[in-house]
User: Fold this.
Amino acid sequence: MRAVDFIPYYAVIFTSKLADSNGYAKIAAEMEILAKQQEGFISIESARQEVGINVSYWKDVESIQRWKQNFDHLKAQQLGKEKWYESYTVRIAKIEREYSFK
Amino acid sequence: MRAVDFIPYYAVIFTSKLADSNGYAKIAAEMEILAKQQEGFISIESARQEVGINVSYWKDVESIQRWKQNFDHLKAQQLGKEKWYESYTVRIAKIEREYSFK
Assistant:
């Protein structure tokens, strides 16, 4: 789980509720593949039950801004608002401390 | 989903994989009730599929430290390491920016 040897780095905490899940999984998987190709990307973790929580980790805020403006990602964001999401919240967070157990 | 009217505030991003889930849900639910009673607590969101992601939001790092040292929470943390968790990572993060769609 330990992704990097430096702190701070950044997280995008994306929490969402779906109004309609038809076609969502396919585009979500495509976006995950695309995110992994972006400069500054570190890792991503997702789980969905009543709420979906997706946390992606990035080296800096500039990488997050570039990903937000990525053309295919913009199209997916638009579709998400029109079609899939009942609601979502995006939080940009600076990771200040981290520890693990294995 | 918007929990507070001020930024920055803090998140504890707790990601975990379970080795044994026997008895876990009960204690996890108890810990969530207890967390909600703590000073500085804002909100909490959880989902588990392959990985469990639990994000709790707090007014400041002091509140997070106090919750980490809470007696019943310490007992649950110990049980978690002995019994339930295959691995986990705790990240303390400062929320610098937030926006929502509804």
